[in-house]
Amino acid sequence: MNHIKLDLSAVEQFLNQDAVKSLQAQSVVARRSLEDGTCAGNDFLGWLHLPSSITPEILADLQSTADILRQECDTVVVAGIGGSYLGARAVIEALNDSFSWLRKEHNGPTVLFAGNNISEDYLAELTDLLKDQRFGVINISKSGTTTETALAFRLLKKQCEEQRGKEEARRVIVAITDAKRGAARITADKEGYKSFVIPDNVGGRFSVLTPVGLLPIAVAGFDIAALIQGAQEMERATAADIPYEDNLAMRYATTRNALYLAGKKIEIMANFQPKLHYIAEWWKQLYGESEGKQGKGIFPASVDLTTDLHSMGQWIQDGERTIFETVLSIEQPEKTLLFPHDEENLDGLNFLEGRRVDQVNKMAEFGTRLAHIDGGVPNIRIILPRLDAFTLGELIYFFEIGCGISGLLLGVNPFDQPGVEAYKKNMFALLGKPGYEADGEALRKRIQA
User: Fold this and answer.
1) pTM for this entry
2) 3-state class of 390 per DSSP?
3) How far out from the chain centre does Cα 422 lie?
4) Which long-range contacts (CB under 8 A, 24 or more apart) does 336-344 make?
5) How confident is the model over 70-104, as pLDDT tens digits?
6) In what helix (H) or strand (E) does residue 438 lie, and over which residues does it extend?
7) Residues involved in catalysis
């Protein structure tokens, strides 16, 4: 079976090799500290051996619940924000037919997402869309009080009960939440919802291989057993006893930190397959929330190519040289489409006649990489043999373990997120939430000023 590969050949010319060697040794130590549980944030290492801990019985329970939702719903809305929705959406978008939502023969319910914004227009349009539909809800929240998700779930719960009746709604509302505490747990127990647990020692951005990601992915009709199998393979391939030279995660973490020390402060994830857009969105949260602390951290950005070459290409090619690229490259697409002949040849493209469209895309990828390297942009290439559940499982775990190592090399705790609370305190004060009123008036004056 083919596995993910890492190509660092277009990076070495940009690096100080003494710095790289020093970081290599630190990377081995960091990986060992994750394994031993001696690193910063060691109370949030539940993701480390999560793939190998998932049993067939766990997968069967998730699949059984997914099958009920698939049978009884035309639409399933996943209510969650950040890590509680990005991983699931990334996998679903990557594996889905690009136009499945338009096809009459669409297999299974449409999976939609809510609770990731506070847009009145979005929520009003969503609830209008769901009128007279057989819809279900997966509510994902450890606390049950995260404003965006709680607001959406309150609306969706009420609408589902009004349209189906309380008893039937109970069958198609699922809670993924804390084992014992919080508003979502209390609601699930009181209403009798089927529920799954978010482990206490797994942070949201590392939770895609828990029920948080697995249940929505299964509802969308994709093979969660293959996803977990891929993650298990990568868990073994990046274990602490795998030598540095063979350990993809250590090499990726070391390289990006060496580039950071060389003044490359922005990592741009690029893909040449639009289905990978949300993989980059998930990756941005994973690395941004894990490393952006204490005035440190590589800024994670992303582009969809070749589309964004016509908007961001000029900046990447000739802008400030503070960037490096990480390219996700798919070796073999799922579909085959040949370029046709045209008698008039007004576009001058008959030289491509009979070639696969993917060959054109690959040459665009290689040509772009060469141009950017020549323009002073270091280039990491992550090669995916194909776009399937197994490969995505490998990729997810590769990025997770790479993130843990990279954050430790940077000198931060990769598993906390103290900075995300600041906006919440201000928002609650401005809204007059009980307990926050004292700060509200001062904040309103600042806004008016």
Assistant:
1) 0.95
2) helix
3) 23
4) none
5) 999 999 999 999 999 999 999 999 999 998 877 76
6) helix 437-448
7) 289, 310, 424
